[in-house]
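3.2 Worked example (two chains)
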Amino acid sequence: MYRLALKANVDEVITILLALIYLQFGIVAGVLRFNFMAWGAALAPYAMMQVLYMINDERKPIHWLSLALIMSLIAQVHLLSTVYIACTFVPFAIYALVKTSAKKQMIIDFFKALGTTLVLTANVWGGLLVLYSHNKISLPNQYNLYYHVVKYKKLINLHGFSLISMVLLLVFQLIYVLTHLRESVLNTMVTIIALVILLLASSLMPWAQIQAHFPSLKSSLQIPYRLAVGASPLILLGVGISMTN
């Protein structure tokens, strides 16, 4: 988180504060428990550096080698984190594709990153293909999607929980962005997209109805609050930019 904020030209003292705050976010704090998504979240800020390229680098929005390396590393640690982080990239990639004048090169770089990632993670997805083509015993656990959402508590800040102080931080950040829309495209985009993802991961989404219509999500998506793995570093990045300004 410290490195990500520095790369976005956030004041150095503020970057240290952001790094400390990031350790308190629910998914990262979950490293104390059995869930490996905490390790995915630990690496997520490095992946979110790619967002800076997509927004600020009009000539080369996709740095394919660094993108492939970080996504491959995260896949080796926690495969689902890779999936959710890739989904987080989508709106930024669309923005970059619309903005850049080198659209053809961006598409080529995307496929370079995708191909390199597939090669470097073949041991992961290849193993899954072999296993699940025959596996009849150890199927993934099913979870109630509605119950496993981002929850907001006054004191509890473990896996899937966020302190009420974090919620207030998000509210103040949103107010700042809405009153300074033209000050920073980066700040506006990371804040709004991160907040949308957090809302999708919360009980405001009709997860009970969704799992009723798509029961397979109970064993594939499993836990909606995992969607926030890429949003957490983005929202803090926005806070850092606002504080610096």
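3.2.1 Second chain
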Amino acid sequence: MLDIAIIGAGPAGLATALRLHQKGFRPRIYEAVPELKPLGVGVDIKPYAVKEITEMGLLEEFKAVSVEARESIFYTGYGQQIFSEQCGRYMGYEHDQRFVHRGRLQMMLYQAVLDRLGKDAVTLGCRCTDFEQDGGGVTVHFDNALNAAAPKSLRADVVIGVDGIRSVVRGKLLPESERTFFSGLTLYRGVTVMPPIKTGGSILHIGDPIRQGTLIVYPIQDNVDGNGSQLINWVVEQDEKPQSEEDWNQETGVKDIEHVFDDCKLDFLDIGEMIRNARECYLFPLIDHDPLPQWTFGRITLLGDAAHAMYPRGGNSVCQAFVDARVVAEKLADITDPAQALKAYETERREKVNWLVMASRGEGPEVVRRIVEERSGGKPFDDIENIFPYEEALSIFSEYHAKAGMKIPTLKDGVEPGKYKSVFNTQQ
């Protein structure tokens, strides 16, 4: 049986361990932080990723910590509706789409790993610093200053680098991948405790990309206060803000953004009040990471954000990592030679995910708001059909969904994915 070392205990690394365990392996996880905490804010788990969670045997646990998505609605900066679609089972998919706090998702997966693989399956306070490989395996070196009981080095048959957007493993394998640049866009990510919005499972996409920027709003926890309120996750994307460190957990205030959407009038939501009542808010700069030309190097491979860091547009980052986890486990179980198995995993996954990396850089499905802004001249309109027909919008969304691995089960007669000229510039 292969000795497999996973570097990183985020959701992707934990999911990889669970998938490998289902195939009969007993991988070990090594994580830099000395204690796992439920950090972060919201993530949108698409139907294809809920399928992966279901196959891990964790659907009921996942339902208990998440909110079912019912509808996705796009609005202009003035609050006029552009397009709406149903989500998950309401769209006809076999599985739900669900919203969840990233930290709660991670802790759910962590508990499953401890329950199934044992408490010694995860070593904390053990930061990977270097590695080298030969024909027989990989030697990994660690800084164990935060955990004296952790190893300083170990030997493994396979190493999977799942150590996030600032991956040490990726940096060692592909030093040129460390060359990134600031896009000029900054995200303010916050959460607010408040009554449910619309259906209680609605995700709202608001604003114009030129005048205001973007606001995404969706619930990530039900009945958070015992009085029926939800924990509402919101993300404000702004241009020309100062660059900060590429770190999801930089706390900040809301002074810079509390009045950005004052022109947006929605009869069911006071945006400024929601932002001002934030329980917490984090700052995150959008840093460009070019798609990688290679993930696998002999017995070492990359997975999740370490392999395909992408803008958080369209909600596919962690979802794609869950697919990675299944595929790498399948290949290692089916192909005797570890290096060939890892290469087969890369062959199946890399090109598909790189398309999403580039599509997300080019706005992803949020592009529809820019289209309307340009065609309307930034002014309110009388009838959306006159400037952005429903059939055209549906064609755009069906193309994106299909490329992400979730082709819409039922489409309006005559609508084809990509029927109109693609708006997803993936050649940047």
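3.3 Remarks
The chain has a mean pLDDT of 90.
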